[in-house]
Structure formats: structure tokens, C-alpha cells
């Protein structure tokens, strides 16, 4: 059955709907990482004394051992997660890329943030803290971090936003956020003498006291105009077999997810068929084949509908028929 | 002599300095694993006195006892309350297995102990529940003899 591809040409209006808000609303679900066993805070003294009881000369006696005191050193550990590993960006809109940082160490620690972008032109110079913890960036509640660093209690987590100008995102861009403990980072087990809480030694944990996460930004919104095509066949014998003389009625449904400018729909008449005169209809209203005031024209080559500028989202249905030659 | 137990304990604690002047001495040590990488890439694990520990580090509590007198001493019981920041893991390979307790009153093998949960039911005790470790020495310790007992734990 001939069914050539249908083309739809759409020039997109600048998105007036708050694409940013919609994107960020999805980021509300915060990662809540709770350590299985709360780590002993850095600086905690661990005091051990054993008692020994015994019998001598018929009487029970007790002695205590010496007391051994250990002080828990500060463990430097951190994790960072890209809350939105991939983010679609509407051009011109400011995009807040969310990351969640967790201090998985056992002492209060400052973590410096470094943000890098792999695409030229995508400059990241601002990082904000999700001050009210709602998962969405607002200028009034989420302060900018200058210099970019966060101080976290043991086990505490925070969400940060890397602020990117969506207009700069022309191709897929990777934004990488790296956190590292201010007291020091490096190979697990590295000791920074006296660098921990209250002058305790700091010891690098399994994370290396450093972690990175990447979020990939891609241009254009996730909602694209779409066109669906369906057909029904009516044969002269009343069946739906595609035979000579049968009429194929095509139904095109164009769905536009937002305000869209300059919408035209063109569908060529399939080879081996002939357009059935005056069969063109838009949203169940018949259109003339001539080029005139109504938005549709049709000829032997194809049908053309000019919807023009559409102020709101919506869908439109076009129908026309051809006869199998 | 039938002093009530608490009074007796109090008296002995006050009367006895940490390192007893009496014939039986007990010393406590806490060791940790120190890994050193040799030039050929092999890793050597040595036990050294713990000075710097971080959560997750394995530590070994060692109790040494010594009878400095000449008479045998019987019914020796060593009791080591497990510090709150420490989670018991098990006896050391070289040591006799201790009895443990999850409440400081009832002692036994860990598998026989149960803990009461918030809803009033009980569940089998796990190593994290252990509050006290205790050894009863079956035999009297002769004069001049010594021994060592130990258990493994981890810093919470």
C-alpha cells in the first residue's frame, strides 16, 4: 500500500510557558541517603577499661585494667549525585541543574565545588544552594554560593543548582560538578594531621574525599510537534481490500504541544493513486481545493494546509481521500 | 565475709589502682591493622596500637593477665564493657571465644541471646547489640603464669 512519509514544517515560537518551572518540578524528589549505622563523630573519645574478678584466699576481689582512650579521627568522605542526569533545555531560559551532595564523613566539613562544561560557550559561573529545599531554584530563597562551597554536618545533605544560560546550549553539553573536602582529598587512607574537626587528624575515606557527577543538557524541549497518519480503505465491493478503484481516506492528526508559529502540513498524493476532488477537510470542515481564503489547497501532487500561527497548544485533524488507480 | 556486692565492688575500686598492686595484673590494649605495601606490591598487615581510627576501622581489644604471685588464682572472670562507639564483631582467631551480653546481665554465646524490640517482641541478637564481653577462665592460673584474650570490633 503506498504510504509515503508525510512532512510537517514547524517554526517554533519562543516558549512563553514556564518550561524551566516544569523541568524543575520533576526534581523535587530529593535523594535521602541515611547511613545504616550512624558514624561516630570525629573527636569522640573511646574509653576502654576491663574489669577482672578473681578469688584469692577465699574472697572475691576485683581489679581494673589500665584505661585505653582512643579519639575518633575525622573521616573525609563525600558523594554527589546528578539529580537530573539528562536535562532538555529550552533556548533562552535559565536552567538550574540540580546536584545533591552528602557529607558521608563523620565530621563537619566544607566542600569546595568545581563546575566544568565540556562545550565551548556554556559558561558556568554561578552556583546556588537550594535554601528552602523545595527542589526548584528561586532567586529569593536560594542564595548564590560565592565562592562555590558548602559546609555540611556529618550525614547532612544539600542540593545545589548550577545555573546555566539555556541560550548557550546549542548541542548536547555535559555539566560536571566536582566536590572535594577542604581538609584534603586524595588516595583513601591519606592522613592530614590536625586538619580534622577540633584539631583531630583527618583521614581520607573510600571516596577519596572527592566526587563528581555529570548532567547532560540537550537543546530544545522534550515536547515536539507530532503528526500521526491513519488510513481507511473502502473498496467498490464494500470490503476494505486495497484493490483498483478502492478509496483510501487518510486522517492526519497534528499535535502541537505549545504556541507554534508558521505551521504548515504537506502530504503528497501517493504514487498509483489519484486525489479525490473536494475531499479535503480540516477539523471536520470541508475545504475547497482552490487556493483561496480557507487554509487548504489540493491538487494532483498533494494536499497543503496552512495553519499559520497558533497561539496555544492543540491538535488538528486533516482528512482527504484518494482512489487507487 | 558477706558484704553486699555493690559495697564490695566500690571498696575494691577505690582501694585498687588501675594497675593493681596485687598479684593479678590486667592490661588492656587496643590494636588496629596497619597495612603497608612492600616494593613487590604485596600488602603486609601488622597489628599496631591504635592511635588514629575512623569509622569502619577494625580494631582488636586485647586483655592480658598475669599472676605475679606464687599462689594459683582461681575463678578469674574478665569483663570488658564494649564502648558505645564500638561494634563487637567476634573473637579473635588466637583467642578463646568469650561469652557476650546484650544487657550487661545475661551472658552466653551470641546465638542464644535475644533483644527486645520497640514493639515489645524479641529478635535474635546480632553483633551490633553486644554491650559486654566476658571470659571465665576454667582453670586456675598458676603463679607466674600469664595469658591473653582478645576480641575484634569495628569503630561505628
UniProtKB/TrEMBL annotation, chain B:
It comes from the Bacteria. The keyword Signal applies. Keywords: Signal. Residues 1-20 form the signal peptide. This is DUF11 domain-containing protein. It comes from Sphingomonas glacialis.
